[in-house]
Amino acid sequence: MINTVKIDLHLHTNKSDGTLSPSEIVKLSFTKGLKVIAITDHDTTNGIDEAYEAIAKYSEMTLIPGIELSVDIPGGEIHLLGYFINIYDKSFQKRIEEFRISRVNRAKSIVEKLNHLGLTISWDEVKEVGKDAAIGRPHIAQVLVNKKYIKYPKEAFDRYIGRLGPAYVDRPKLSAEKAIKILLDNGAVPVLAHPFFMFTKKDKFNISQIKKIITKLRSYGLMGIETYYGKHTPNEVSYLQNLCEELNIIPTGGSDFHNSGNPNEQKPGDVGPPMTTYTKLKEFHLNIKQKK
In what helix (H) or strand (E) does residue 39 lie, and over which residues does it extend? Predict the structure, then answer.
């Protein structure tokens, strides 16, 4: 069966919490028939140059430089995707370096909590898994897998290090307004990632809250919603499509691929938006640049 999805705007590499290199992600995306991809690592753009070099071998493919940021909201957190990042913006790079440092400090505290729970892992083991990546919870999860405390990385979040887990540690995060401003100042297009997963528990919110939050984000400058997402139900996708039309913002999407080893993980190209999304993102990006 020929893959009808040609664009995937949510891919992670081993520069953050994915396991494939940027070059490997590009090659895999090509084999899946993708034409436009975005590298959206957490708090880092360190994989973008390698991805550009790799994608130069495939003239029919286009790379969007991106990033994913964690943002506080009452009752939960959201993730913001930034598209068409200017990776040479020194002020922007300084800010995301601060975010990476806070990730490391949080990860060290999580390791301590896990040790107190009887799960003996070391910071050196986490660093060995993460190598030169922006260290995060998925690296801790992989150590727990390696030491056979759990079978799949997802179990670590469900049982220990997720927001309701006994080893969870929060970290300082930006307000939504500040995060969107940072992206806009960089010239990037701010998009809300997987909106139906912004709360700790799905039964703690309703559709009206989703719309209220997104409308507020729109007033700050949000320009898109990740509508086509593997864990969204058909009804959720339909709702977000209508909301994008109502608010005049872009419906984006992607697999959120990490190559994590979890069962039933979405692969590049399994889910994504129509190709018109790329045109709209580029148009919005150019408008931001003209206003700067």
Answer: strand 36-39
Assigned domain for 168 exists: no
Instruction: Examine residue 1 and state whether it is found in any structural domain, yes or no.
Output: no
If one counts every other C-beta atom within 10 angstroms of the C-beta of residue 284, the result is: 20
Domain limits at 139? 97-161
* H or E, element range at 64: strand 62-73
- pLDDT single digits (tens) 102-140: 999 999 999 999 999 999 999 999 999 998 888 889 999
Cα–Cα distance measured from residue 81 to residue 38, given in angstroms and rounded to the nearest whole number: 10
Label the pairing between strands 224-229 and 250-254: parallel
Closest C-alpha to 203, from 257, 164, 175, 166: 164
Look at the block and give the residue holding tokens 């949080």: 106
CATH code at 189? 3.20.20.140
Task: Assess whether 68 and 128 both reside in one domain.
Answer: no
Q: Residue 130 and residue 5: Cα distance in Å, rounded?
A: 31
> Alpha-carbon distance 230 to 143, whole Å?
26
Whether pTM exceeds 0.85: yes
- Number of domains within the chain: 2
Single-letter residue type at 102: S
Least Cα distance to 141 among 114, 105, 171 occurs for 114
Same domain (yes/no): 88, 152 = no
Structure tokens at 121: 């892992």
The pLDDT score that the predictor gives to residue 1 is: 44
Q: What ranges in the chain are assigned the alpha helix state H? A: 22-31, 48-55, 90-116, 123-130, 137-146, 153-156, 176-186, 207-220, 234-247, 276-291
**What are the pLDDT digits (tens) for 30-52?**
999 999 999 999 999 999 999 99
Q: Tokens representing 199? A: 């709360």
Tell me if 52 is assigned to some domain: yes
